[in-house]
UniProtKB/TrEMBL annotation:
Any GO molecular function: haloalkane dehalogenase activity
Protein name: Haloalkane dehalogenase
A UniProt-annotated Pfam family: Abhydrolase_1
Residue ranges occupied by any AB hydrolase-1 domain in the UniProt entry: 36-282
Gene from which the chain derives: dhmA_2
Amino acid sequence: MSASNAPAAAAAIAHRFVDVDGIRLFYREAGPADAPAVLLPHGYPCSSFQFRRLLPALADRWRVVAPDYPGFGYSDTPPPEAFGYGFDDYAALLGRFADAVGLQRFALYLQDYGTWIGLRLAMRDPSRITGLIVQNGDIYEDAMGPKYEVIRRYWSDPSPANRAPLEQAVSEHGFRDEFVGEVGEEHAALIPPDLWKLHWPLMNTPARRDLAVRLMGALKANIDDWFPRYQTFLREHQPPTLVVWGPRDGYMPEAAGRAYLRDLPNAEFHLTDGGHWLLETHFDPVCELIRDFLARLPESLPPRRR
């Protein structure tokens, strides 16, 4: 059954809240409650909204769940003393969120910040992970793109002058540039302004703006301490993996995607002519690849007849 022929009730997106550790988290979900599950942690500067098309497109065969992190989207922004706002804190909370909504085993979609959060979750309990879909989420320092140079200057010298470009990036203009700044006009026309026009008002609070800048600063420890751990995890566990990449990405160029094949030689690798947000610009071919990959995972196969 194709996504376009999925029953309307299955394809409908439900919008819910759940309390996890006293934090009210917003999430979107679609698909049968007892179907094989796919968990969609989002990237920056976005929220579960980035999966609004993928959720119903998979809902005929899978239960698909996409939460907003604390400090993003429609979820709470607890004070720092109540939540740590580090990538490890997000991973731990994502695991408890999965428990709260009844996800025992699931495939993970890894993109942008969601890559580092999702992989940390996978490392906590590899037995929960049925497969990985990696879309422009880097974990290889030697393959990082030139856009990291602005952040690197801040890491080397966290002065007000070096912090200023990061603060300027946390703006409506900065958000727009993240979505359309690196692709051609043909692809930029496919990216709806809602992505920055809706997200910027949600992020435009002192607490959330500060959080966004602090997460950029936290990337240094993520790269220095965690990139090697992510690679070791993949190399040792060899989870079934689909890598779909948009090379027009100043942070994560083509080399960052191909680097996964060092540790996952059996991964499926597909290169497009797009950029960081393939679910906006290349949705149909990427969705087809995802459906084909998920359908071949053991949890998605029909039981054998005896």
